[in-house]
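Incident log, support desk, overnight shift.

02:14 A customer reports that sequence design results differ from what the structure should imply. Their input is reproduced verbatim below. On-call engineer (initials T.W.) acknowledged and began investigating.
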């Protein structure tokens, strides 16, 4: 590993440390003292680009899952509608059977 690779590795490590507020002043001082401003800016841009791609990938994955869930909900709604129609039809048939039963019970009472 040559010195440029080590410098880059150090800058990448420092860029990762920028998430901790208390480390920012020390990192900025180190970058300025070593004359790494331009290179460090490039490292930060690369890291930002990687994070943006990762965020897009995650969002796309969850968006796909979201669309699948919406599709399932729509299918469920359709199934519930069919089930309700079937229940209503069954209820109507049961009422008709009960009316006929009452009619036959009345008839049997007349003839008894």
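02:41 Re-run completed on a clean worker. Output:
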């Amino acid at each position: 590993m040559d010195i440029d690779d080590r410098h880059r590795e150090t800058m990448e490590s420092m860029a990762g440390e920028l998430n901790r507020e208390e480390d920012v002043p020390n990192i900025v001082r180190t970058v300025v003292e070593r004359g790494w401003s331009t290179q460090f800016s490039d490292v930060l841009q690369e890291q930002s680009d990687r994070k943006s791609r990762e965020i897009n990938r995650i969002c796309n994955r969850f968006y796909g899952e979201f669309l699948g869930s919406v599709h399932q909900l729509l299918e469920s709604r359709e199934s519930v509608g069919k089930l309700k129609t079937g229940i209503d039809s069954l209820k109507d048939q049961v009422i008709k059977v009960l009316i006929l039963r009452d009619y036959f019970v009345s008839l049997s009472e007349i003839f008894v």
